[in-house]
């Protein structure tokens, strides 16, 4: 690839394996063992796209932990939502939850996490990428999606382009900006196997501070805390929903996220709500969180109310 | 076998998903019902269905909350199971998967031998001397859950899954056996490795193995494994 060619869009000058193109995810193929993928903090992705008038699930760059430099090769309007990763444009700080203009030749950089873990960068109409099995969400493990369609993360020398005009910029109502408060309470829809855990384990699950282990990625996040005990063992593998909290025999729960395996055989407490999954995506290893139980019906009502906020304006 | 149609039990799995429990145990006779239920549910949910993931005894049904309510979903499921007839499995496909059984790529061979009191050679003879049925595809693209492995070889998953398993690795978990199609984490007991390609965007239907297919493992030596394009690098380091 000719690095000096100016073909418009954004040229990637520096990237990491944790930076990928994502969209709403890959659906209708999980029976082939293909995972869901998609933006972990889908709420921030929705806002980034909303700010530009894009379809809410249009392709965005999911920037995990920073260390990304992009050279602007055309004048454009972009939008940023999610974590504060110390973003700046030619050295001037850029706040998330806004659209912003860039000029050809400017340098857009993301340093390190200052608040939250994942930022979402949107472009007019969504970034261009091949649609693989219905989505451009990148997943290295499955070699599907991403900028080249082979699941590889964003790499230096690559070019991000788009085809929209960006004439429908919006401003967020400040009251709607998600706040990443420390030690969040994450809602968990109780699953059918919850009765297989001991009373003490259920008490511990919902009354302890859980610490996020360093062995955490887009597939799942391990939680460290009291050892949970389940009476059930040797379960037959079954389908796993997003946010499922499974408990392997070592008693330390794993929250299964967008890149999870489709089927698994460990017992589960239930599954986090989509809003809780989005919040968890902004937590870094070492941070604490709490789990709080919720009935499916109440969770559904709350989720539909949440989706309503993007319908206005 | 003509059995009565299963009446699924509904279990909450998440905000917009249900587990439909059709059977309590893994039986080959489940398959015609599982295949029939899958087809019927796809038709009755139409655009309201996001994903349907069949496994040995269950179906995970993920529906679109913005399309239908939880009670409408339950109603559709009840309708789908009315007058359900088992699907025909006549003419299901048969595959032979060449497999290099060896401690270098099958680190749990000694464990299985120790647990069962059998020699490693006998473990290999028994694992490869049997036709398995594909019960479900899942966990990873093209990963086929097969069974049933005979009782003597049944071994629970590792208590802490490995972070990285090599493609082609052949494993056992309880009475299930499978081949890992790509690099992945996993907790199955590994016996050997196959050079077969299991998931490819150029394969019709993407996955070599499909539910209802029959599979037999064919023992091969190291030279044959390499000749067939197998990768013998030891990637199973925890």
From TrEMBL, chain A:
Domain of life: Bacteria
Pfam families to which the protein is assigned, alphabetical: CT_A_B
Domain called Carboxyltransferase: residue spans: 31-310
Entry keyword set: ATP-binding, Hydrolase, Nucleotide-binding
UniProt key word ATP-binding: yes
SMART domains: AHS2
Keyword Thylakoid part of the UniProt annotation: no
Protein name: Biotin-dependent carboxyltransferase family protein
Native source species: Pseudomonas aestuarii
């Amino acid at each position: 690839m000719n690095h000096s060619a100016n073909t418009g869009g954004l040229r990637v000058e520096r990237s990491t394996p944790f930076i990928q193109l994502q969209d709403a995810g890959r659906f209708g193929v999980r029976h082939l063992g293909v995972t869901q993928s998609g933006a972990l903090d889908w709420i921030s992705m929705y806002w980034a796209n909303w700010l530009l008038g894009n379809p809410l699930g249009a392709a965005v760059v999911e920037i995990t932990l920073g260390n990304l430099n992009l050279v602007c090769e055309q004048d454009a309007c972009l939008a940023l939502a999610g974590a504060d990763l110390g973003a700046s444009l030619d050295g001037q700080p850029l706040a998330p939850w806004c659209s912003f203009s860039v000029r050809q030749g400017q340098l857009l950089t993301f340093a390190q996490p200052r608040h939250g873990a994942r930022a979402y960068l949107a472009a007019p109409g969504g970034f261009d990428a091949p649609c693989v099995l219905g989505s451009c969400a990148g997943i290295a493990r499955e070699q599907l999606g991403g900028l080249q369609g082979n699941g590889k993360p964003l790499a230096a020398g690559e070019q991000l382009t788009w085809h929209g005009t960006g004439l429908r910029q919006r401003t967020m109502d400040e009251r709607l900006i998600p706040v990443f408060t420390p030690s969040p309470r994450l809602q968990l829809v109780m699953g059918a196997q919850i009765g297989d855990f001991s009373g003490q384990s259920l008490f511990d699950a919902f009354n302890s501070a859980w610490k996020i282990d360093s062995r955490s990625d887009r597939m799942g996040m391990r939680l460290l805390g009291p050892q949970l005990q389940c009476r059930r063992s040797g379960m037959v593998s079954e389908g796993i929903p997003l946010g499922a909290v499974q408990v392997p025999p070592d008693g330390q729960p794993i929250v299964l996220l967008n890149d999870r395996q489709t089927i698994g055989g460990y017992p589960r407490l239930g599954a986090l709500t989509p809003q809780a999954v989005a919040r968890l995506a902004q937590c870094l290893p070492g941070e604490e969180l709490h789990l709080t139980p919720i009935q499916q019906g109440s969770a559904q009502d709350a989720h539909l109310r949440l989706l309503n906020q993007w319908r206005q304006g | 076998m003509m059995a009565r149609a299963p009446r699924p039990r509904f279990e909450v799995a998440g905000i917009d998903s249900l587990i439909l429990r059709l059977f309590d145990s893994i039986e080959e006779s489940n398959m015609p019902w599982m295949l029939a239920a899958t087809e019927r549910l796809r038709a009755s949910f139409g655009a309201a269905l996001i994903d349907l993931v069949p496994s040995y005894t269950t179906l995970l049904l993920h529906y679109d909350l913005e399309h239908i309510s939880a009670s409408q979903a339950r109603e559709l499921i009840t309708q789908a199971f009315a007058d359900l007839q088992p699907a025909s499995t006549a003419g299901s496909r048969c595959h032979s998967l060449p497999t290099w059984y060896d401690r270098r790529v099958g680190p749990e061979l000694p464990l299985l031998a120790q647990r069962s009191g059998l020699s490693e050679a006998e473990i290999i003879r028994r694992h490869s001397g049997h036709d398995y049925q594909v019960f479900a595809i899942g966990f990873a693209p093209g990963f086929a859950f097969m069974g049933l492995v005979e009782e003597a070889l049944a071994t629970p998953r590792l208590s802490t899954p490995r972070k990285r398993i090599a493609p082609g690795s052949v494993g056992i978990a309880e009475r299930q056996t499978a081949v890992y199609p790509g690099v992945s984490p996993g907790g199955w007991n590994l016996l050997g490795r196959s050079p077969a390609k299991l998931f490819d965007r150029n394969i019709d239907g993407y996955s070599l193995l499909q539910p209802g297919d029959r599979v037999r493992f064919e023992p091969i030596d190291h030279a044959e494994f390499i000749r067939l394009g197998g990768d013998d690098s030891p990637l199973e380091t925890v």
